[in-house]
Amino acid sequence: xxxxxxxxxxxxxxxxxxxxxxxxxxxxxxxxxxxxxxxxxxxxxxxxxxxxxxxxxxxxxxxxxxxxxxxxxxxxxxxxxxxxxxxxxxxxxxxxxxxxxxxxxxxxxxxxxxxxxxxxxxxxxxxxxxxxxxxxxxxxxxxxxxxxxxxx
Length: 152
Fold this sequence. Notes:
The chain has one domain: Pectate Lyase C-like, CATH 2.160.20.80. It is 0% helix and 0% strand. It has no helix or strand.
């Protein structure tokens, strides 16, 4: 399914272990609770997608567009989000433990309660909207919100 158009589709709790979604268009798709663990999703368009409680463990999302996506309580442990666009994404209570966020854009992302322990953040843009209740132990480049950004 490389380059497939699933824009706006309802894929609630879908199990996509063998799907090939590289460069797919999943904008506005409902992927709540979907299992995309280990998938190659490089260059995929997931703008405004609902990925609440989705399993994205060890998924390759490098270069993916996840801007304004809802990733609340998503499991992104060990995921590769290098150079991904997470502008305005809701990552509240998401598990990003050990994730690779090298040169990722987290501008205005909401990370309330997110676990960033052991995450690799080198070169990431971290002009965050919310970063309260953060867990960033052992991250290689601790996130520091810009002066004047709200902390609560």
